[in-house]
Design goal:
The structure holds 2 protein chains of 2 kinds. Chain A has 23 helices and 2 strands. Chain A is mainly α. Chain A has one domain. Chain A has a two-stranded antiparallel sheet. The longest helix of chain A has about 35 residues. Chain A is globular, with a radius of gyration of 23 Å. Chain B has 2 domains: about 70 residues; about 70 residues. The two termini of chain B are about 40 Å apart. Helices cover about 70% and strands about 0% of the residues of chain B. Chain B is mostly helical. The chains are: A mainly alpha, B mainly alpha. At the A-B interface, helix 9, helix 10, helix 20, helix 21 and helix 22 of A face strand 1, helix 1, helix 2, helix 3 and helix 4 of B.
């Protein structure tokens, strides 16, 4: 409690609060523009956070993401174009409400559910991290190896599309992590004489490339241009019927938030996955299932709460184990390392004040979303009129200078461009990008823990299962690896059954 | 630009062989240890080969089935047949490349202004709008990064 009280003035001062305010506006702006994601907003932000103190830097990231995820609902409801992938799950539902003239209500409910979901998620974050941290203290290299493997495996299994492509994406990330000087032998690997690569591929320019440049390339190659005008609907008081609606569906609110926080904790499953699953669950257990799809507010509450709760949940493994829950926390882990706040259970003792400051930031960021979100809803028709043809070159220039600023050399720009092209080609061919980022972040940890364990056990792989926790974690990891095989076997079995003639053929 | 899975599979297998042989042939062994810096890249390489082979199978299967996506080894996206859009894409990639080449020589302000001008034009803004936006963006970026955050943006031979 003492450290919590000591952390209060670290957050509640003019500098941090103004950073939170500006970051919230930035997040609302980026989130409400279709095509610009919350991850991209974070990537754009890192070069600026590079020059900040740790607390304002983390405050900027947390606030931007929380507000961007809500803002994604705005174009989703008004134009049927989700601003961020996390709003895609209920975009049709919200648009159907707009068609009935209830745009204000859809956004008002979405905003309130987002704020409550975010607050519940933050509470889960506070309690889950401290509980898990005590547990994580007894971890040795075996346990860390399995936890990292489990994180990466979840990212592959959960990622949409083919598991093989997800795995390749992960391997690309792991390979990139091997570039540079190997800490064990001191030998430079895959640097081909390039001195800039000795310290590894610069992480920040890489992320800017993968999440922002690839998006700009995708914009440059879109065949359908043109701005769709948002319907002019009066949004005098979006909160008018919100208390009654939320009162009626309070269980949905709790269920969505809880589900979101839990899904967020799973590595690789971010806010978008949380929203899809929460929406699906809402529909399944609803008493008015027939109303779904025709502008029914129920699913909106579950999913809006879930995606904001998921954001906080993703920070649990990030802070306790240094294992990112999604691409955004992968970026955040990079920032934490840059600021000397090495994630892991020891952070709770070494930097207890700073950690509590991070927790407080989560609450402040979600609370500030309420008034600023309301302003965003009121000005939404104006926000949606910002033409992308003007915005994209500006973003490109910010990316270039941001990448340059990290390395103070053209090499950063080269990394950014290469990563952008890689991500663009990967996505064109159906490879998810998130596993690559997780691979880059976790690669060196996995290698270090694997080699340390192997040397310790003298090459006996069974030692990886010798301790109770490592045994359980190992078995869970192996079970996760079996999921695609089981899926494939089931698929093949059904295929064969379908191919068989079902009854007598009448000639 | 969508490649058939088989093409990608072959690429990954070749890439993996290169990764493994480079590690095995050039990385030094760690004296007195059974495990060293060659092992992790080798494991990654083996993973690439396994996935590559699976991709080759699925690619050939979809080609044999004549499915729309996998029927050819390389299918160009809609955008690649449209000259205007190909030029847009090229202007992003080549623009950044040229920016890198000329940055130190011409200085940040000039290179940024011209790259932005080309892109604003390519994305369909009017010339007047493009000129104004390029100048304003360059000034804003310079102010934020160059002055406020003290990033040493190159000034070039003209001192700009």
């Amino acid at each position: 409690m003492d450290s919590f009280l000591q952390a209060l003035p670290i957050v509640l001062n003019f500098e941090v609060l103004s950073v939170i305010f500006l970051a919230a506006i930035f997040g609302l702006f980026i989130g409400s523009i279709p095509g610009l994601t919350a991850t991209m907003a974070t990537a754009l932000l890192i070069p600026v956070t590079f020059f900040m103190d740790p607390v304002p830097a983390i405050a900027a990231i947390v606030t931007t993401v929380a507000t961007a995820i809500f803002a994604g609902d705005i174009p989703g409801a008004l134009l049927r174009m989700p601003g961020t992938p996390a709003s895609a799950a209920y975009c049709d539902e919200a648009f159907a409400m707009t068609r009935k003239g209830q745009a204000g209500q859809a956004l008002g409910v979405g905003l309130t559910a987002s704020v409550i979901g975010g607050l519940i998620g933050s509470t889960v974050l506070v309690f889950a991290t401290s509980t898990l941290a005590n547990f994580a203290f007894s971890f040795s290299s075996y346990e860390y190896f399995w936890v990292a493997c489990l994180g990466l495996s979840c990212a592959v299994v959960i990622s949409a599309g083919s598991a093989v492509k997800g795995l390749i994406s992960l391997l690309i990330g792991l390979f990139i992590s091997t570039i540079g000087i190997d800490l064990m032998s001191g030998h430079a690997r895959y640097t081909f004489g390039v001195t800039e690569l000795l310290g590894g591929v610069s992480f920040v320019p890489m992320l800017i490339g993968m999440f922002a440049i690839s998006e700009i390339m995708r914009y440059a190659t879109t065949t359908a241009y043109g701005i769709r005008r948002a319907p002019d609907q009066l949004m005098t008081n979006p909160f008018k019927e919100v208390p009654q609606i939320l009162g009626k569906y309070k269980l949905n609110l709790l269920r969505g938030s809880g589900l979101g926080a839990i899904i967020g904790v799973l590595p690789g499953a971010g806010a978008d996955m949380a929203a899809w699953i929460a929406y699906g669950t809402s529909k399944k257990f609803s008493k008015e299932r027939e109303k779904f799809g025709n502008g029914h507010v129920e699913g909106l509450i579950d999913a809006s709460a879930a995606n904001n709760a998921g954001l906080s949940g993703a920070w649990v493994p990030a802070l306790v184990f240094g294992i990112p829950g999604d691409s955004i926390t992968a970026i955040a882990i990079g920032v934490l390392y840059m600021k000397g706040l090495n994630p892991g259970p020891t952070i709770f003792y070494e930097n207890a004040e700073l950690l509590n400051a991070v927790f407080i930031i989560f609450f402040v960021a979600n609370l500030i979303l309420l008034p600023l979100g309301l302003v965003a809803i009121k000005t939404s028709t104006m926000l949606l009129r910002v033409p992308q043809r003007v915005l994209m070159p500006v973003i490109l220039m910010f990316c270039i200078v941001g990448s340059f600023a990290i390395t103070n050399s053209i090499f950063g720009i080269a990394v950014m461009l290469s990563a952008g092209l890689l991500a663009f080609i990967m996505e064109e061919n159906g490879f998810p990008v998130a596993p690559t980022v997780l691979g880059i972040v976790l690669g060196s940890m996995i290698e270090e823990m694997f080699l340390a364990s192997m040397i310790k056990s003298d090459g006996n792989f069974l030692e990886f299962f010798s301790r109770p926790i490592s045994c359980v974690l190992g078995i869970i990891t192996l079970a996760v690896w079996c999921i695609p095989l089981v899926k494939y076997a089931k698929f093949a079995f059904e295929d064969r059954n379908n191919a068989r003639p079902k009854g007598p053929v009448v000639k | 630009m969508k490649f058939n899975d088989a093409v990608l599979g072959v690429f990954f297998v070749i890439f993996a062989i290169a990764v493994i042989s480079y590690a095995q042939l050039t990385f030094p062994p760690l004296h007195g240890q059974n495990f060293d810096s060659r092992d992790f890249p080798t494991v990654i390489g083996i993973g690439f080969i396994a996935c590559g082979v699976l991709l080759i199978f699925s690619g050939l299967k979809s080609r044999a089935a004549g499915s729309f996506v996998g029927a050819t080894f390389l299918s160009l996206g809609d955008w690649m047949t449209n000259h205007r859009i190909v030029l847009n894409f090229a202007s992003v990639v080549l623009g950044v490349l040229l920016f890198m080449i000329f940055l130190n020589f011409a200085g940040f302000s000039l290179t940024s202004f011209f790259l932005l001008l080309v892109l604003f034009q390519r994305f369909g803004n009017s010339l007047f709008m493009s000129l104004i936006s390029s100048a304003v963006t360059t000034a804003a970026v310079y102010l934020l990064f160059g002055t406020l955050l003290r990033v040493p943006l190159p000034i070039g031979v003209l001192g700009l």
